[in-house]
What we know:
The chain is mainly beta. It folds into 5 domains: about 1-65, no CATH class; about 70-185, Immunoglobulin-like (Sandwich); about 185-265, Immunoglobulin-like; about 270-355, Sandwich (Immunoglobulin-like); about 360-440, Sandwich (Immunoglobulin-like). Helices cover about 5% and strands about 40% of the residues. It contains 3 helices and 32 strands. The strands form 9 sheets. Strands 4, 5, 7, 8 and 9 form a 5-stranded antiparallel sheet that branches. Strands 12, 13, 15, 16 and 17 form a 5-stranded antiparallel sheet that branches. Strands 19, 20, 22 and 25 form a 4-stranded mixed sheet that branches. The longest helix has 10 residues, at about 80-85.
Amino acid sequence: xxxxxxxxxxxxxxxxxxxxxxxxxxxxxxxxxxxxxxxxxxxxxxxxxxxxxxxxxxxxxxxxxxxxxxxxxxxxxxxxxxxxxxxxxxxxxxxxxxxxxxxxxxxxxxxxxxxxxxxxxxxxxxxxxxxxxxxxxxxxxxxxxxxxxxxxxxxxxxxxxxxxxxxxxxxxxxxxxxxxxxxxxxxxxxxxxxxxxxxxxxxxxxxxxxxxxxxxxxxxxxxxxxxxxxxxxxxxxxxxxxxxxxxxxxxxxxxxxxxxxxxxxxxxxxxxxxxxxxxxxxxxxxxxxxxxxxxxxxxxxxxxxxxxxxxxxxxxxxxxxxxxxxxxxxxxxxxxxxxxxxxxxxxxxxxxxxxxxxxxxxxxxxxxxxxxxxxxxxxxxxxxxxxxxxxxxxxxxxxxxxxxxxxxxxxxxxxxxxxxxxxxxxxxxxxxxxxxxxxxxxxxxx
Length: 446
């Protein structure tokens, strides 16, 4: 039997032609079809008879999905890597998307923001020594966009994401498309937030709106436990940058993108000092906020490091409702704290050992990604004086439980928008253990 090989690339209509030399006794040839220009996934194989000489292969014999191959490369320069790791980002994500053009031909930041995207492929990797190179096969499109981002752990989402600019490329089935994504120090703004004594301010807010219009709105991220922050921007732009903490603000600086040694001084001298302890010892990690850090969240809370157990609050004459969240060595705890006004208590201390522990559960909501939103609020027992109802929202595309659920009677509303009447309203009992709700059951007529 004659040994040999021939190959051809199918055209846009799927047709191809192979001219093969065969011995007279050869009655069939092994035909191998590769879905793309790489050998993976496994090719489709079949023996094809050689009589008559002009054989036609029916499309039904080889139903190959229209796919294309992409090589995606993410590179990060050394200075950018050093800052990103210093702040604490951990995960590299890359996405290939198909963009739908907005109805208007005029592109602004608003139309760019509202433009919908269809994700064709995505990957997630631990942040390792760059560059990262990934081979992907995606469904065929004329044009695709690719971008990458480096993100912190879910609990530290306030630190913000470092995202590359979008890169666009055309696809075909004969070549491997290349997407080269870069993160460089010249596209970053980075620095540290400190107080008047040069001590880092954990979890301070850093605002970075663009100096020149049209900004979509002030962009805000948080500094980490040691006051470090980093944000991605467009090289050549200038941003107005300042830090704030409980009403105290640093000077507002005009900062060119590429500045990575910025120091923002945010004085706490005018703020109220609150000390949090555990049995007279400073509590090293906690958060004292206006909103819940634990109840109804999808991720465990980020508790900033506070070595001296001190948190700074804006001085107020009237009492203020706050939520104190900490970890007791076994689990997260959260308690409502009514902080007295300055006239009633110029200094204020909290000892978490004196606060009664509360048992909490989790809530799984069985839904579909395009299903309705589920909103719940606790009606019994009532919240302490000065505090509003406990409330949380279960998003349909989130495949994770709501954490920190307190036992009690909850009003559950199912709907697509809080501005429209709910599709259903149901009272349910939740316990300090595992709870489950099915949207289909909530919508069933009663």
